[in-house]
Design a protein that fits this description.
Helix content is 14%, strand content 48%. By secondary structure, it is mainly beta. The chain is extended and about 80 Å long.
Length: 163
């Protein structure tokens, strides 16, 4: 038999085995689902935000008895403090001040700083806060302090309890 035909057969067999293994290892295809769901997000970046420290976002739908979390993507030049409030019908149901922190990471090969915001990022809307409704429309207020020229992304995530 021809050596090229044997080599070609081996390559084809290897491809078939790879495809079969991929189908078994990931039967759902590439539809990777994230357990948590994004409710709201915004990126403060660019000259249009340099002189404005207070921001209001309206009609943020929040369900009762669902845990939520704020997530941040800060840089070294991000605002030093960020205050967030959630208000419903004039009442403040959540308020927190987040401070920009930095942590030195030493991998043994290199050193760098990791930036994060400290503060209580988790909350839940109770039955008393959102009465007689499953979902209430909240106003979200963001106040930035110090270094308003620095960028920051903020997200509000609904946490899936099933995981």
């Amino acid at each position: 038999m021809n050596k090229m035909a044997i080599a070609g057969g081996i390559v084809v067999a290897a491809i078939i085995v790879s495809i079969a293994y991929g189908a078994v290892a990931n039967p759902g295809g590439n539809d990777e689902k994230r357990a948590d769901s994004d409710i709201w997000n915004f990126r403060f970046s660019g000259p249009e935000f340099h002189d404005i420290s207070s921001h209001k976002f309206s009609n943020i739908p929040l369900e009762r008895n669902i845990p939520y979390k704020f997530e941040f993507v800060p840089m070294g030049d991000s605002p030093e403090r960020v205050e967030i409030q959630l208000r419903f019908e004039g009442r403040t149901d959540y308020s927190e001040r987040f401070m920009l922190e930095r942590e030195l990471v030493d991998t043994g090969i290199s050193k760098y700083y990791r930036y994060y915001y400290s503060g209580d990022k988790y909350f839940e809307i109770s039955n008393q806060q959102c009465e007689n409704k499953k979902t209430c429309e909240y106003d979200l207020y963001v106040q930035r302090f110090g270094n308003l020229k620095g960028s920051i992304s903020i997200s509000l995530i609904a946490i899936d309890r099933s995981i």
